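User: Fold this; tokens only.

Assistant: Input:
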Amino acid sequence: MTKNWFATALRFATCRIAPLALALALMAGCGGSSSNNSNNRNTVQAVPAADHVFLVVLENHSFSQVIGSPAMPYLNSLASQHALAASYFANTHPSIGNYFMLTVGNMETNSDAFSGTISDDNIVRALTQAGKSWKAYIENLPSVGYTGGDVPPLYLKQHNPFSYLSDVLNSSTQAANMAPFSQFSADLASGNLANFVYIAPNSQNDAHDCPGGAASCADTDRLAAADTWLKNNIDPLVQSPNFGNSLLIITWDESVDTDAANGGGQVATVLVGPHTRCAFRSTMTHQHQDTLRTILQALQLSELHTATKSANTLGDMLQ
């Protein structure tokens, strides 16, 4: 066990020096690290097994607004050290359909006012059937197991797809896996981490709204607030020995409304962990269903009977 932990830690640490190695390689005339199989979606890419998968979802910004932005130094440091999906597209506008694609594998609805119940196959069902655990840490969720509507200005139900799933609504035990984000630091410190962890900042920390409740702000203020939140709350996860053999995926639900490429526009998606390819930039086209299938395979779960069955994975970014 000690040997395996050391090997995992060594692979992860290597990514932190990879940008320097890449720079030296470029100076020596070597090519940069990127995939050359951008159109090869016919072969499903293999995904290494992980003990935990963490999914963080941010809001409403395009790839070009985020990658290279001086307002987001922390996220960009992760993107440069680890693996960046440079041809990743959301599925639809507005937000809600993308959240369902990440957890169900179908868009289900394009109405943020949707108040129905989703009974389709979903990640909670797959985890439960496999005897594996999950937890959703939702910032400013009013209480553990809350399945009600919006609580303005910070909690927006459409950013919590678990609150619509029949598997959750029909079980108080499953509903209890939805918790305020304030519980996360204690669970991280104790190592009490579920196999699948979903993390959603509140609407002022996910780049959706202006920080501090301001009526208007520069877009860089939204991005800076989200980046600070990631640095303060996600970096402790990345640095923790309890991160271990885990995979962290940070993505954005959708691009700006004027970008409808492939349905929801181009967004930034970053993978971090001991199995990510260091300083890697993927040019393979990906969408949210690929992320869901990646999570399923990383946790060795059964395929869902939804659009994920025809999806690829983010395996080109992993090793």
